[in-house]
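Need residues for this backbone.
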């Protein structure tokens, strides 16, 4: 009977659309439970700090910046002072201290703008530094251009065009140091308001690795024993409002593409594995992997040393003219 029902086209379409609605309802529930303005996760405070840090840095980077950010500077100082002791040594906190210092230096040349706030921030920084707090060099920088732009463009084109999804791995596992080097490059990817909500999590524990390999789609033909497997996740508690509901996947995609190119630059092969599973399957896998409740899985990844003689799909790309267009008036 089940097979007969599957052959009824209109019924299949109704069931498919119903399942789509159910999956989106699960997504809605997860987002409502974990977004920044409702989350009780301690990470929420760190994301709030990063948002204010980015706002101050962005203001400092305007072409002709004027006095700005007095309320945000006060709010940032307030957030830092309210932090529990064990949360006061994070990267976000050290970035905040650096951003406030840069903001203060900028406003020292504008003594009449809001002297009370400026002196309050100065006193705040003096107090924290007296307690031994360390800050990172935040604020603004002048980016360096490649020393040879033409060579850099040619080299990047060669790097990107020779990357393929690699499924056959040699006997030697990729070590943690190589993975860390790739992540160090990938973390420079664009991140919404520099919240850095994305993580790479690799699993070597046998039960977790098997669960991951069995749940991800597209693992057929992938070498299991000689590959290392993981997921790229994003933290839903970093998102601030409904308009950002897709930011997690966007940020994960930006990070992941840089990551696989960074692996390729080391001669390491990767294969991105779709995570097109149901919400229930994701939660079961997340529980097995020990992921925090607010983290969502964006994509899976296999990592291994390529076998030089192994074929890969040609995967011919569309002509550029079918992808790139410019809309003009008229």
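Answer:
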């Amino acid at each position: 009977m089940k097979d007969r029902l599957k052959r009824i086209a209109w019924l299949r379409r109704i069931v498919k659309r119903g399942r789509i609605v159910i999956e989106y309802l699960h997504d809605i529930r997860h987002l409502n439970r974990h977004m920044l303005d409702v989350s009780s996760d301690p990470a929420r405070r760190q994301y709030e700090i990063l948002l204010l840090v980015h706002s101050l840095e962005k203001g400092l980077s305007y072409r002709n910046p004027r006095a700005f950010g007095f309320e945000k500077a006060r709010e940032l100082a307030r957030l830092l002072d309210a932090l529990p002791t064990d949360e006061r040594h994070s990267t976000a906190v050290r970035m905040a201290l650096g951003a406030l210092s840069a903001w203060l230096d900028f406003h020292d040349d504008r003594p009449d703008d809001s002297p009370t706030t400026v002196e309050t921030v100065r006193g705040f920084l003096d107090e924290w530094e007296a307690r031994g707090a360390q800050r990172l060099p935040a604020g603004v920088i002048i980016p360096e251009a490649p020393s040879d732009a033409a060579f850099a463009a040619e080299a990047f084109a060669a790097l990107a065009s020779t990357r393929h999804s690699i499924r056959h791995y040699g006997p030697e596992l990729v070590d943690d140091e190589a993975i860390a080097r790739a992540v160090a490059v990938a973390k420079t990817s664009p991140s919404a308001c520099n919240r850095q909500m994305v993580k790479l999590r690799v699993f070597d524990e046998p039960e977790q690795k098997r669960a991951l390999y069995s749940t991800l789609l597209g693992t057929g033909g992938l070498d299991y024993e000689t590959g290392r497997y993981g997921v790229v996740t994003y933290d839903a508690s970093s998102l601030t409002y409904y308009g950002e509901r897709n930011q997690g996947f966007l940020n994960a995609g930006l990070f992941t593409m840089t990551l696989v190119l960074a692996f390729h630059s080391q001669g390491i092969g990767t294969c991105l594995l779709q995570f097109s599973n149901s919400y229930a399957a994701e939660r079961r896998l997340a529980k097995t992997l020990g992921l925090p409740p607010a983290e969502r899985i964006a994509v899976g990844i296999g990592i291994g040393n390529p076998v030089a003689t192994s074929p890969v799909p040609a995967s011919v790309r569309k002509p550029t003219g079918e992808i790139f267009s410019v809309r003009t008036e008229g």
